[in-house]
Amino acid sequence: MKHKKKIMGHTIFVPIDTSLEVKVSCNFYTNKCEWCGSMFRSFKDAKYCSSSHKASAGRKRMVQNYQIEIASLREKLKLYEAKHNN
User: Fold this and answer.
1) Nearest alpha carbon to residue 11 among 32, 27, 22
2) Whose CB among 33, 46, 61, 66 lies 3.0–4.6 Å from 42's, allowing a Cys bridge?
């Protein structure tokens, strides 16, 4: 089954009235990727230019969370050892 391909462009509204007023708005967002810093266009407001960059950022956050948890456990271990060595 084929699906329609979205085309990035502009939507132009021209009212049928005596006063001519034209409003031009683009149907896409221009964003900067939070992973690589490149500029990209998207039909929705996105943070990453590709799914692989989104996944990489997620893995980086996961590793940072693990590192924070490890540091917390090390502190608890030091307190436990100090308490039981005296």
Assistant:
1) 27
2) 46
Per DSSP, the residues of 9-30 read -EEEE---SSS---EEEESSEE
> What pLDDT, on a 0 to 100 scale, did the predictor assign at position 77?
94
Collapse the DSSP code of 32 into the 3-class scheme (helix H, G, I; strand E, B; otherwise coil) and give the result.
Answer: strand
Q: Where are the domains of the chain?
A: 10-85
pLDDT digits (tens, 9 = 90+) for 2-26: 656 666 666 666 666 666 666 666 7
How much is the pLDDT for 80?
A: 93
pTM of the model: 0.55
Q: List the one residue out of 2, 74, 70, 11 whose CA is nearest residue 43.
A: 11
Please report how many Cα atoms fall inside a 13 Å half-sphere around the Cα of residue 55, on the Cβ side.
3
Q: Are 28 and 45 in contact (CB under 8 A)?
A: no
